[in-house]
Design a protein that fits this description.
There is one protein chain. The protein is an alpha+beta fold. It has a single domain, classed as Zincin-like. Helices cover 48% and strands 13% of the residues. It has 6 helices and 3 strands, in the order ααβαββααα. It has a 3-stranded mixed β-sheet with strand order 1-3-2. Helix 1 crosses helix 5. It starts with a helix and ends with a helix.
């Protein structure tokens, strides 16, 4: 399965657009990036060993705990293209995996821990 970075980013953008308005309206100071692979530092931060793939990563201060303390760099969600595509056999599967990963990371942005992000992503999908 292969998608160019541009094609992949378009699907990530579609996942953002598919969020219910009540969630989209609450996204604040967030950069959404597509990278081919996570860095060693990102895998370490996520506590992912070499044998596992990191599909996405949220880095920042969750919305529910954020204080208004002036201008700060944006929080960041990075969706990793090659690990996702490695596990997908076709475009429909890739689209689902990208959307699931994106929703999982958005749940972190709103304050969910790891188990909570899994549950929240499923609720947003349904």
């Amino acid at each position: 399965m292969n998608l160019s970075t541009e094609q992949f980013a378009l699907i990530v953008s579609e996942a953002l657009d598919s969020l219910p308005e009540k969630f989209r309206d609450k996204i604040n100071n967030l950069a959404i990036l597509v990278e081919d692979n996570p860095t060693k530092e990102q895998k370490k931060k996520a506590r992912i060993g070499r044998e596992f793939d990191l599909l996405g990563l949220y880095e920042g201060f969750v919305q529910s705990r954020r204080l208004n303390f002036g201008p700060v760099p944006p929080d960041k969600i990075t969706i990793f293209r090659l690990p996702i595509l490695k596990n997908c056999g076709n475009i429909d599967e890739a689209r689902r995996r990208i959307k699931d990963t994106f929703l999982h990371e958005i749940a972190h942005h709103f304050g969910s821990d790891e188990p909570g992000a899994r549950k929240a992503a499923k609720k947003i999908i349904n």
